[in-house]
Amino acid sequence: MGVEVVVEGLTKSFGNQNIWRDVSLTLPPGEVSALLGPSGTGKSVFLKSLIGLLKPERGRCVINGVDIVTCSERTLYETRKLFGVLFQDGALFGSMNLFDNVAFPLREHTRKSETEIRRIVLEKLEMTGLTGADDKLPGEISGGMRKRAGLARALVLDPEIILVDEPDSGLDPVRTTYISQLFLDVNAQIDATFLIVTHNINLARTVPDNIGMLFRKELAMFGPREVLLTSDEPVVKQFLHGRMDGPIGMSEEKDGATLAAEKAMFAAGHGAGGVDDVTGVPPQMQPSPGLPERAGSRNRTDRVMQSLHTLPENAQHAIVESLSPEARRHYGVEGGDTHNYGAHAAISQGAGSPVD
Ligand SMILES: Nc1ncnc2c1ncn2[C@@H]1O[C@H](COP(=O)(O)OP(=O)(O)OP(=O)(O)O)[C@@H](O)[C@H]1O
């Protein structure tokens, strides 16, 4: 069962270089969230702060009642056991075969017998599609397999929170979709809370329940996927379309002069690159057939429907459109005008198990 991660007013600097400030968000238990943002905005620093590898100078990060920013080293050590982390390259030991890599946390952190370790390792290798690859060295397998092995290793201690740093790095679009499917399949099976840091627009549009974006040293937004995907904020639109035209520059944010010069260039007909057809809210990927329904997805629908009336209108429409006819009936949002959604949805709460 996943746990909630509550971040409040988190601020991180290195010396006098502030990376981000006043970041507040809640990762809802069992849901899949993604964090986007231009390169260098501190997404990896944020992940490392969540597991206490880096110490923010202000704010709180509360997990199961423990503030990992201020807790003792011993409590931090215990709380870290709730996490599974998948680093960009899988962070495997090059001289160990996949079996020993995946077994490593069990041998380090538990007193389990080798028989029990073998059972767990083979189960996680099967879960990540690596059955039969246990004797391979990391250097003998593809990047996609290395990432899946990294995920298998992240799963062996039965984590309740899984952090993933740029799962698409080095992968082609098809392999990126396969690993995305694997995240949703794992989420359906173990109900862990996920946070995925990514630049990949396809993944961001189709995988998470919630999306956030870091920009200009702040969390520009965080909320249900439909909010960001229907946003008119220039920085969000530019990011989703991968265009040069907008506030994000080549290596940092643009100053006014650069913006004006570029605007003139684009107005004179120079293409801004990127793609134009990244609009709307595509259907969210689902767990593979035969797997259980995601509890996180069901809970999210309930949660989002309760606060529907507080969301921008475009997001409200997208959320209602994504519901099945049964779910619309359940939440009392069959047609009609969005301003009434909140009231109807609130009345319908507790009326039995929702249908997604
Ligand atoms: N240990 C550290 N000491 C000093 N500065 C650091 C440290 N770790 C990260 N930084 C700085 O923090 C900033 C944010 O880095 P980070 O890697 O988190 O960005 P990111 O958003 O993950 O980027 P990318 O998308 O390119 O991976 C960078 O300027 C980086 O140099």
TrEMBL record:
Domain of life (superkingdom): Bacteria
GO molecular function, one term: ATP binding
Organism taxonomic ancestry: Bacteria, Bacillati, Actinomycetota, Actinomycetes, Pseudonocardiales
Listed InterPro entries: AAA+_ATPase (IPR003593), ABC_transporter-like_ATP-bd (IPR003439), ABC_transporter-like_CS (IPR017871), P-loop_NTPase (IPR027417)
SUPFAM superfamilies to which the protein is assigned, alphabetical: P-loop containing nucleoside triphosphate hydrolases (SSF52540)
Name this polypeptide is given: Phospholipid/cholesterol/gamma-HCH transport system ATP-binding protein
Keyword ATP-binding: yes
Alphabetical UniProt keywords: ATP-binding, Nucleotide-binding, Transport
Domain ABC transporter residue range list: 5-241
SMART domains in UniProt: AAA (SM00382)
UniProt region (Disordered), positions on chain: 281-300, 326-356
